[in-house]
Design the sequence.
């Protein structure tokens, strides 16, 4: 656990491991923050996940009740152990990889809590989520502790930041997209749409993107904006992606596909009518 | 009760995550929903999953796990009221006896409980597929009496469309979560996946149709059973009738000859009526078929739209 490998100053990583966070974790943390006890200024909890050679992936978390005052801090460790056992039964691959706290700064109490967690896991990471929005944004940072100080004398602990990335599973991505759309409506609600309206929505989005691109092209052509070669290359890729098929072949493919779909629709309607009939006959 | 609104919050993410982690196969993933009942709305605010059934699994383990989880969650002020359960499904095949029984026991205990069905395959195609169902009051009645004979069902006048009622879902976020969303949007570098506009459909259609065919086979077997039953019943009626007639004739003859009439025998013991087949399974199968057909139709309508769009795009060349 030495502060040995220093990478370039622009990057803020010491060990090189990147902390990958799933949005579930952040949402749970925010939720626990909202539900905190009266008088508690922050919430802490355990982070669960998997450790890789190069990265640490945080996939789950649970909050742990704790009491914090000016001079002392008490964490319910029994509870933490219990919860971890329960979680392990569901997903046995998850291990304790650290802990989180809401709030912007790292206090002295954090050091104590971090020590406790170092007993549970080797080299735990500490995640802070600024849910009180002290700096105007919700800052999410991860730290690892490193020893510092002169050997022989009192050794201190320094929290060194790590780089944070967000990863999603595919299905998670789609869920998060849906939730993104809730932040637009004033009442923060959203019904789940289905059917053709979704395709329409998606098509509208593609159309928006196309209009933006077209506007950019217009600007470049009229000289308002200098042409950027890489963008030009992307555009060429885009145009070439539309496959050039002879009109007849395309017609054939299209027709056969449409026929398949229509046939299936017809069959399913037939089946539904059949079972409805059956129902009526039985009840006679 | 009146159709309830459900307001989900972060639960949606948790459900998704659980499925991804647990199984990509056709195993079913289940868990418990926690929340509150507010006015005429059911709010679901949290959930936790059940461990999969492994070899060494005892029944009390599940209940104990549940109790422990709920107790622990109560310590951190999470709503611990058990309001329902969720299940993942494979291509929409969830209407089964097991589901019915579980939902019945839940609804019996807590009136507003719902079962949330999550379809991961459909979600991977581009749109979150979460549906909430409850048993209709009529079906509750029937389940309570366990009277699944045809006469019983006829009395209740229940069809497969009246088994489950769907509850509309609304997703509601708190302000803090909205801030989180902004932050994620800012930082996340993963491009928007446009799975929804994918043109390939044959795979999904094939699987759905396969399942549909299996179900229809089951259905036809069931119908055959019912037909044989009703045929047997009518044959038996005839036999009974004939026997009675013969009896009467004989008695008349004997009377004319002055002999004592033959004793009336107990007919019911001679002609035992055949067992009427339980109709519950048929109802379930019909409901399932209906579900499949709905899904297929939805899917085809979407795909037709996409195909026409592709045509328009190609037409510009």
Sequence:
């Amino acid at each position: 656990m030495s502060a040995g490998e220093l990478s370039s100053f622009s990057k803020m990583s010491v060990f090189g491991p990147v902390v990958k966070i799933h949005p579930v974790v952040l949402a749970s943390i925010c939720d626990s923050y909202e539900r905190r006890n009266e008088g508690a200024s922050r919430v802490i909890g355990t982070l669960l996940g998997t450790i890789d050679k190069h990265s640490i992936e945080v996939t789950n978390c649970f909050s742990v009740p704790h009491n914090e005052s000016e001079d002392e801090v008490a964490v319910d460790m029994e509870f933490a152990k219990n919860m971890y056992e329960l979680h392990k039964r569901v997903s046995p691959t998850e291990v304790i990889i650290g802990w989180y706290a809401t709030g912007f700064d790292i206090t002295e109490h954090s050091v104590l809590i971090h020590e406790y967690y170092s007993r549970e896991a080797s080299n735990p990471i500490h995640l802070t989520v600024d849910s009180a929005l002290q700096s105007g944004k919700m800052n999410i940072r991860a730290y690892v502790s490193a020893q510092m100080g002169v050997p022989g004398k009192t050794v201190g602990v320094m929290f060194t930041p790590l780089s944070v990335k967000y990863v999603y599973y595919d299905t998670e991505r789609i869920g998060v997209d849906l939730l993104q759309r809730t932040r637009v409506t004033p009442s923060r609600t959203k019904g789940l749409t289905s059917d053709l309206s979704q395709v329409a929505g998606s098509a509208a989005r593609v159309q928006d993107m196309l209009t933006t691109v077209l506007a950019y092209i217009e600007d470049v052509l009229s000289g308002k904006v200098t042409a950027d070669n890489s963008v030009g290359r992307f555009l060429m890729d885009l145009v070439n992606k539309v496959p050039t098929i002879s009109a007849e072949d395309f017609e054939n493919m299209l027709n056969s596909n449409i026929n398949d779909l229509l046939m299936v629709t017809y069959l399913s309607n037939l089946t539904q009518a059949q079972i409805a009939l059956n129902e009526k006959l039985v009840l006679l | 009760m009146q159709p309830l609104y459900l307001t989900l919050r972060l639960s949606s993410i948790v459900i998704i995550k659980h499925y991804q982690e647990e199984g990509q196969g056709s195993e079913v993933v289940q868990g418990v929903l926690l929340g509150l009942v507010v006015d005429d709305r059911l709010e679901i605010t949290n959930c936790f999953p059940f461990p999969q059934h492994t070899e060494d699994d005892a029944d009390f383990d599940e209940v104990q796990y549940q109790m422990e989880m709920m107790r622990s969650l109560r310590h951190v002020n999470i709503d611990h009221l058990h309001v329902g359960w969720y299940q993942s499904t494979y291509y929409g095949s969830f209407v089964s006896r097991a589901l019915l029984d579980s939902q019945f026991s839940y609804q019996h205990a807590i009136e507003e409980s719902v079962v949330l069905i999550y379809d991961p395959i459909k979600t991977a195609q581009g749109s979150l597929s979460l549906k909430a169902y409850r048993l209709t009051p009529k079906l509750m009645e029937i389940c309570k009496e366990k009277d699944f004979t045809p006469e019983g069902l006829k009395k209740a006048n229940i069809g497969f469309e009246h088994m489950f009622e769907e509850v509309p879902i609304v997703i509601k976020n708190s302000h803090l979560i909205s801030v989180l969303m902004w932050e994620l949007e800012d930082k996340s570098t993963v491009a928007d996946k446009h799975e929804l506009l994918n043109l390939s459909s044959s795979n999904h259609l094939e699987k759905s149709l396969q399942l549909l065919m299996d179900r229809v086979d089951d259905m036809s077997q069931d119908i055959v059973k019912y037909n044989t039953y009703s045929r047997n019943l009518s044959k038996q009626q005839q036999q009974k009738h004939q026997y009675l007639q013969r009896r009467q004739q004989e008695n008349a003859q004997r009377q004319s000859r002055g002999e004592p009439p033959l004793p009336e025998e107990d007919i019911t013991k001679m002609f035992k009526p055949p067992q009427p087949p339980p109709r519950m399974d048929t109802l379930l199968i019909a409901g399932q078929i209906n579900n499949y057909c709905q899904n297929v139709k939805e899917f085809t309508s979407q795909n037709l739209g996409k195909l026409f769009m592709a045509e328009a795009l190609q037409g510009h060349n």
